[in-house]
């Protein structure tokens, strides 16, 4: 893998790490003994949004490193 590809993949992984840290915060908030129905719903929706974003980043990383491009890859 060339340097530019590696750098871009590393940046995408770093972004995914930041988002997963946000997911941790959302999950901690969702564990509150004072959680309301509205609060729980908001936290669940935020987790779903985060999951979609992490999934998209995973797909982007696969494309960047070539695993989904015929003739390129691992």
Question: Which key terms come to mind for this protein?
Answer:
single chain, 74 residues, mainly alpha
Q: Can you walk me through this structure?
A:
- With 74 residues, the chain is an all-alpha fold.
- The protein has one domain.
- Helices cover 77% and strands 0% of the residues.
- It contains two helices and no strands.
- The protein is elongated.
- The N and C termini lie close together (9 Å).
- The model has no long low-confidence stretch (mean pLDDT 92).
Strand content: under 5%
Q: Which structural class fits the helix and strand makeup?
A: mainly alpha
User: Which whole number gives the mean pLDDT?
Assistant: 92
Overall helicity:
over 70%
Task: Give the CA-CA distance, first to last residue.
Answer: 9 Å
> Which word captures the global form?
elongated
Succession of helices and strands: HH
Poorly predicted runs of 5 or more residues: none
Main sheet record: none
Number of helices: 2
Number of beta-strand segments? 0
Please outline what is shown here.
With 74 residues, this protein is mainly α. The protein contains 2 helices and no strands.
Q: What is the fold's blueprint, element by element?
A:
Blueprint (H helix, E strand, L loop, with lengths): L2 H28 L6 H29 L9
Helix pairs in contact: 1-2
């Amino acid at each position: 893998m060339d340097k530019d590809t590696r750098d871009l993949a590393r940046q995408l992984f770093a972004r995914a790490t930041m988002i997963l840290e946000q997911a941790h915060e959302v999950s901690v908030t969702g564990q509150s003994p004072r959680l309301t129905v509205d609060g729980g719903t908001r936290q669940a929706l935020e987790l779903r949004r985060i999951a979609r974003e992490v999934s998209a980043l995973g797909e982007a990383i696969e494309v960047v490193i070539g695993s989904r491009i015929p003739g390129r890859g691992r």
